[in-house]
Structures are given as structure tokens and as C-alpha cells.
Amino acid sequence: MFNRADTTACVMERIAEARPKQLFLIADGPRSDRPGEAEACERARSVAEELVDWDCEVHRHYSETNLGCGHRPASGIDWLFEQVESAIILEDDCVAHPSFFSFCDKMLRRYREDERVMHISGCTYRAEPWDTDDSYFFTRFPACWGWATWRRAWHHFDIHCKDWPRLRETRFLNDITGAPAVADFWGAQFDEATLAPDDLHFWDYQWAFACWANNGLAACPRRNLISNIGWGEGATHTTDANEPSLSLPTFEMASPLKHPPNVLPDPDLNRQYVEEFLLPSALQWQAEKNSSPLKEALKRSLLNPMKRSIRRMIR
What are the start-end ranges of the E strands in 226-303? Predict the structure, then answer.
């Protein structure tokens, strides 16, 4: 959490329904050049603590200074996994369906020792169900709006992507994404992580890199379990209220779970995931990078009807 007490309260109210035995609160500190932000950060922390009305062991990791959208989440999750073997992770604007918690708990237990699985997603970024008869499917793409993982998987995380230069000139990204434009876009994010380590404003691209570099898979639910309410004023990245993946409806995860027969990425759904969420923003990024202002405006107008990709972490 950071400086938004209202969205923090919505997330905490749903957590309170799940009544976890342990709760880890991670907060970034205020920016020194923003009047009133210290008070806003304190309000967010206070409302989170006030909503803990059940028997629960609460752990706090509050930063007095602003570490930013990259280093604060990364260092907070590092701290988290110094203490536990597995965890469910929510940002301060990701409101979970009540069944999200039991889904994650069951999945964390089932795949605890299976190093092929590194990530459990809650958000599908779409209102429609994925075309599968199973409760979830495996993909190469970890979604971080409400998710879960294990210490054994997070151990591979490196915010600076130190292994990227070794893989940069190979077919590593093309083989994973299946789309050169998407590979170029993600490669640029890894370049930034490698070349500008002191001023990083994201961490989730590096987490995807850790999964990809270790052949890790993400389990994605058939239907959406997370609604991101963090759009608009106060958001860092997702300021567009018309973003199609925001404020999505959530659906109950039926029990018992119907598991896929194999721990393998579904090729058809993997390809659809790329085409629906990753390719449009990669093409837009290329237009912004390579075009004149006039051509850029034209290409943007053509891309607007297309769904945009997974967004970075939101304040």
C-alpha cells in the first residue's frame, strides 16, 4: 500500500472476510516533494490496521522514505519470504472475490513441491471466461493483480535482470511470446531494468523474466477473480478509466477444482493471451517509438479499439 486509504480499505475488507492467520502489511513512504502525502500514507496504514478485527498475527514493513513502484514491492516481498514459505499477495487496489483466497490456498498446497509452477494468478484481465473446461490453465504469462507464489520461486527474482544480457541476442523472447513485436517490447523493459537499476518504476516485468528464465509456468483461473479499482486520479500507470481490464466483474471459483490433466502451457490459450493482451500495446509502443507525431497519432487512432496489455503495478 502507499497513499490511498479508500482503495486500501476495500482490499482489507475482503481480506478480513478470509481471516488469515498471518497478515503482512507492506507500505511505501511519502515523497518529500508532495505536500500532504505523509498524512495520506499514514491514513492508509491506519485504515489497514483498524480493519484487522479477527485473531491474526500482524507483521509490518513500513518504509519511512519513498522507494518507488519498483524497489518497494520487490524489497517488501523479499522481506515477506524471509519469514514464510508461501503467500498470497494483493496490491492496495486489487479487490479479490472471496473464493480467490481458497483457490490460492489449494493451489499453493497442490504445487508446493512442483518447481514447474512458479505463479498463481487471480486476474484474467477479461470479463469472459477462457475456453477451457478446467478450473484453470497453465500459461507462460504471470498476471500480478492478485497472485500467489512460494519462496522457492521468488528466490529466482532479480530486479536488475542480470541474466538478460546473456539471453538478449538469442531467440529467448521470440520463443516465449511467439510475436516479434511483443519480444521487442519486453526486451526494452528488461533493458531498462538492467541499465537503470537506481530509478526503476516497475518490478513485475522482472518477475516475468524470472519465471521465463527458469521455465516457470503460471496458473490462470478460467474466470476472473480480481477487480482492479485503482484507475483514475491517484494512479501511477493506469489513469484511463476506459481501460477494459479495470474494474472487471469477479466470479466465484467453483469447488472442488477441476485440474488440467498436464502441467503444460495451453498452446491455444497462450497464443490468444498474447494476441489479446500483449500484442496491441507492443504495436502501440512501436508506433510511439518509431513514428513522427502525425503518424503516431494515426497509429494510435487505429489501435484504440484494440484491448491493451497487462499494465504495470499501480499505485
Answer: 226-228
C-alpha to C-alpha distance for 31 and 43, rounded to whole angstroms: 15
Q: What integer best gives the mean pLDDT of the chain?
A: 90
Element (H, E) at 139: strand 136-139
Q: What is the largest CA-CA distance in the chain?
A: 59
The boundaries of the domain holding residue 173 are: 93-303
Domain contains 214: yes
Cα three-residue angle 187-189-191, rounded to 5 degrees: 70
- Pair 277, 235 in one domain: yes
pLDDT of residue 197: 75
Half-sphere exposure in the Cβ direction for 190 (13 Å, CA): 26
Read off the pTM. 0.88
Residue 308 inside a domain? The answer is no
SS3 87: strand
Residue 104 lies in a domain: yes
pLDDT digits (tens, 9 = 90+) for 241-280: 455 668 899 999 999 999 999 999 999 999 999 999 999 9
Tell me phi and psi for residue 148, to 5 degrees. -150, 155
